[in-house]
Specification:
The protein is mostly helical. The chain has seven helices and two strands. It has a domain of 143 residues. A two-stranded parallel ribbon has the order 1-2. Helix 2 crosses helix 7 and helix 5 crosses helix 6.
Length: 235
């Protein structure tokens, strides 16, 4: 025998104060919910106004920078003269730096394809929906997986001598192991790291690598893509 359903009729227009399934709304009231616990902002005008203010502030900052400093422009383009080094735009310099270490098929086709496929596939998996800490569950198993992935990745990078990626990768992995360490009285920094989900670590690794590769390609590569110091004047 099924349990009776709780369908109740009441004279009330506040469905939160009186949790009923059916309500009769009188002529002098309107059906509404009196709630004060929703932390939301209306798109218009609050959200749109904030975005407009942010755009205006950014535009003023860019204008001020343009007035105070000249853009590092070179001379007119000459199709008969190839600059040395021939650098891509800054947003492609990280990829160009990878081309220095890996074969063109790996750096120009395989790695970008894997990144794009990862961005497509990841949303279809329920990974840390609750944004829980990485070591909240299955700590020992996850530590083993992290150790194996780090070792394989380190060997792969060491074979190709990609130390610009290897060193930050080892530092990120060391931070992950540090956050998983069991101590009687962990510090605030360790507690903060332990509360971060897997997505935080992946994105942190990606941003650190992109920034380092872009900086190296921008300031530390000279003629023939040789490694130079920024103050040597050979860039």
């Amino acid at each position: 025998m099924s349990e009776p359903k709780d369908f109740v009729a009441a004279m009330d227009s506040n469905s939160r104060k009186t949790p009923v399934r059916v309500a009769f709304v009188t002529r002098r009231t309107s059906p509404h919910v009196k709630a004060h616990d929703d932390d939301t902002v209306m798109t218009f005008p609050e959200g749109l106004f904030r975005a407009a203010v942010a755009v205006e502030v950014l535009a003023l900052i860019l204008v001020a920078i343009a007035l105070l400093w000249d853009a590092p422009l070179e001379g007119l383009a000459d199709p008969t003269v190839t600059p040395n080094p021939a650098k891509a735009p800054w947003y492609f310099l990280g990829l160009q730096e990878l081309l220095h270490y890996f074969p063109p098929v790996v750096a120009g086709v395989l790695i970008p394809t894997l990144v794009i496929l990862g961005l497509i596939v990841i949303p279809y998996f329920k990974i840390n929906i609750e944004a829980e800490g990485l070591w909240t569950r299955n700590r020992t198993q996850r530590l083993r997986i992290l150790a194996v992935v780090t070792a394989v990745f380190a060997v792969f990078l060491a074979v190709f001598h990609v130390y610009a990626v290897l060193i930050p990768t080892l530092l990120i992995a060391a931070s992950m192991f540090f956050s998983a360490r069991s101590t009687p009285s962990p510090g605030r920094f360790q507690v903060w790291l332990a509360s971060k989900p897997l997505s935080f670590w992946i994105m942190s690794w990606f941003l650190v690598q992109a920034a380092i590769l872009t900086l190296i390609g921008t300031f530390f590569r000279g003629p023939g893509w040789s490694l130079v110091m920024p103050w040597s004047g050979q860039i």
